[in-house]
Every structure is written in structure tokens, then in C-alpha cells.
Design a protein that fits this description.
single chain, 60 residues, mainly alpha, 1 helix, 57% helix
């Protein structure tokens, strides 16, 4: 019984981690497309977005 519960909990945790990773990737892609993600510091978009002007990033 305990072994089955542990396996189920591990599967649930793995599923949650996978969903969070997918959501994070989607958010990162959306931010890269809309904000031109000026991570490099010189204003160039590294994500291949269509915007040539980087938008101001909110303070962390």
C-alpha cells in the first residue's frame, strides 16, 4: 500500500514538474516575442522576435 502510494506521489510530482516546465517555456516564449528579450544588454533580440525595439523590463 505504501509502495503504491509512493509511486503515485512520484508520478504526480513528475507531472507537476512537467506542467510547470511547459508553462515556463510558454511564458518565456511569449515574453521573448513581446518584449524582444534584451538579455544580452545591447538591445538585440535573442529569441528571434519580430520586434526591433526592446520593451522596458519590469524590475525583479
Amino acid at each position: 500500500m505504501n509502495v503504491n502510494m509512493n509511486i503515485d506521489i512520484n508520478k504526480i510530482i513528475g507531472l507537476i514538474v512537467t506542467v510547470i516546465s511547459i508553462i515556463g517555456a510558454i511564458i518565456g516564449a511569449v515574453q521573448g516575442d513581446t518584449a524582444s528579450s534584451s538579455i544580452s544588454g545591447n538591445g538585440t533580440a535573442q529569441s528571434g522576435g519580430t520586434n526591433s525595439q526592446p520593451a522596458p523590463q519590469p524590475a525583479p
